[in-house]
Amino acid sequence: MITGARLHKTYLADDGNCVRALDDVSFSVKEREFYVLLGPSGSGKTTTLRAIAGLDQPDRGRITIDGRLVFASDDDIHIPPEERPIAMAFQSYALWPHMDVHDNIAFPLRRGIRRVPPEEAARRVGRVVELLRLKTELHRPVSTLSGGQQQRVALARALALEPAVLLMDEPLSNLDARLRARLRVELKEITRSTGITTVYVTHDQTEAMVMGDRIAVMEHGRILQEGAPLTLYHQPAELFVAKFLGEMNFIAGEIEPGNGQRALVATQVGPLSLVRSPTTPTRGSVVLGFRPEDAVLTEAPGENVIRARVTARQYLGDAFLYRACCGEISFEIRRPKGEQIELCTEIFVYLPPRACIAFGGSADKSAGEQV
Amino acid sequence: MGAAASWSVLARLLRDPIALAIRALVAAAVFLLAVPIFALLSSSFLDVQPNGGAPTLANFQAVLAHPLFVPVVRNTLMLGAGTVAVMLSFAVPFAWLFARTDLPRKDLLLALITVNVAIPSFLVAIGYIFIFNPSNGLANQVARDVFGLKTSPFNIYSLGWMIALQGAALAAPAFFMIVPSLQAIDVTLEEAAAASGVRRGVTALRIVLPLAAPAILAACAYYFIIAIEMFDYASMLGMPTRIFVASTWLYQMINASTGLPRYGEAAALGLLVATASLLVSLVYLRAIGKAARYAVVTGKRRSQQTVRLAAAAKVIAWAFILAYALFSFALPVLTLLWASGQPFVQLPTLLALSRWSLDAYHEAFAQLPPLIYNNLVVMLAVPTISVALAACVGWAGTRPLRTWDRGRLARVVGWKGRAGRPRSKGRGLRGGLDLFVMMAIAVPSIVSALGFLYFGLAVYRAISIYTTIWLIVLAMSTRYLTWANRTISSNLLQVHPEIEEACATSGVRPGSAFVSVLLPTIGRALVYSWFWLALLSLRELTIPIMLARPDTAVLATAIWSLNAAGNGDVAAAMSMILVCITLVMVFCFHKVASQREI
Prior knowledge:
Chain A is α+β, with helices and mostly antiparallel strands.
């Protein structure tokens, strides 16, 4: 439905440095897919979205939407945003402040390039208003609406265009946590029921996990890894992805070629074995990572068991988060609240080999790559 | 690819005719702003009369060697600096009282200052001439008759009076320029100082003032240029006793009582003045850049008044404000009212009151119809043209230029471009346009009017605009464009870019987005600017005095001429009519504004 091929964009920052906003970004979004671009600020996710929308022009590359070439640097093609089969919801909602709810939704249908006959416009407004429960707000000025309502108007305006592609740039980031959680589910439900192809930009990993059919994690203008939420969470290919999606403990070590599916990492807390994946390095310094909730308490020492002492405890409501130390190494484990452990207790922590992942390089891989 | 690419660009441009029209208006604005500069350059450096167009420096030599040159430079600098000093001594305390204290009846303060902006400066000058002129000024009459002095102690025709009155007059608009910067200062900064044990007076001087300093400096530079371009006081109080400043000398060269107009020398002097103003405007540009940076540093919260004034301080503050109002407009206007009913100026006694008549008003009304017609044309056309052009220029200058337009334009025009080289956001073409319009404030009104005079003469054979009111309209629109651009651009900058991007991504073309979304969003600023420009064009003297002919006179020039011709009572009567029109306009706008929450 949407493809981006080898997109590059460099711009000059205010401090005179060149910043690579897009560094060889390629992606392909399938029809009816909910595709999330996830990354910290400055990672290039919004630039990618704006390139799809046509609001920003990459220096190089090609973009197609719905089979139509909308940008190609080689062929000097750049279709302006208003002529692309898209609609977009913005972080600030970008509602037109001098119009009421109805006019905000109807204006593009009456005055835009994709204008439709008045009856059709009325039908579409009626449909999206129904879908987003805005019927009672229809003639209110948009400035009097709450944040959540404004967000729904912005979405209604986008959906009323019945675009091939819906683009969303952090649409929930200005809302409070409770409303955000509710609208996440609502948004996902609406895009599923309308069958619209969606590209969604966020820096919130929970949002990405909950909503995305597929997530692309971006950093420094590159897509580091792309995949279903489950894959990204349990099989991160890069340290950054592992860190960005949830919590993870890291222990430095040396990997040794093990036998068969297993590999062995020699660490300060003893040898730890793990199940190989295609991205597991074969030799050299590695960082072994595991998620706090994957650690299991056991009674006695054994294979992949770390002997540690509990030094701190946080109550999270549904669980406890413990900080445990073994020599100079400290890590966190998360256990259900039934398994309460007192401070200073000595524990045996079992790390299932399936839950351990080895990443090449060192743990504090430098950030801030500049040209 | 040339022809094909040109066609595709043409096709694209025609697809959005509104955007095309906007671009045409931007080009028109740039043309108008460039007219006076080119006219001055060509008339000063080219020897027009004898040998037709040979380059020459004779005009500059004549100006620099003229016996008046040194005194004019000295007087002009003193007028500029003195005016700014007087202006600050009123504007800064008023702005501080208004923005940061709990002064009672701030609405009245605002009303007094608004009226002061609206009252034409030349009326104040005439009013004071009635009071302090050395032969029969009211104050001098009192001094001679009541106190038995042999000579007149007061003489209004002096540089000192020019400075005092002009400074008081400009304090009002400067107030509006300084207040926002004082209001923008986050109240928590003062609270933090108070919580750290700093006294309020120290806080005001060491924290609030430095933060507002760039805005105050910007006001100084801006009104320095206004002070040396203003014709009202300099001509009415200076010319009778031959105290020349740049603006009046320029006028004298064109309207010499003996000999031919010295166009070439006037152009040379105009260029010199414009160059000097350019240097001052650089200070202004730097200062507003800094002011903007400070505005970012300080928070968003609107300040509440933090300084509680003691009862005595409130009384003193109001006494100061009322004294200012009396000095800057109440006294002269009342004097005009009195003088308009007297064939010659006499002290207000019961006997004189009984002789007060409307004769002068009859005469004034008889002259009124053509003046009112011209004034109406100016008042409707000038703000409309200025605001329309400023909105288009603001759009082109402040909104993100759409990259595909720039790229295609570059390719068609044949610029090599810097393909592949990283571009910085926000520089280049639109930065240049913005700067050009800002720099245009450096061309003083009187110089700009001179440029348009030459322009009118140059194109006279092709277009006979020189003899019509439209030359005045064009010159004033161009001058006011720079003013309107400041307000409208800063409002456009505050509109979130996503507002416009939302139009693009929902299929609305840039032209429609501008007309249907952007303009309504800044509607308040547009109406506000239109009204102020209408008011300013009603009272504008400097530009019409250079360009008006007998049949294109406006109220301002008519009053000026009546006064210059010694027709004091008719001038006063016509002034009172102008005051009434002005006050009605201010009142109407106030009504409209309060209804539409402007």
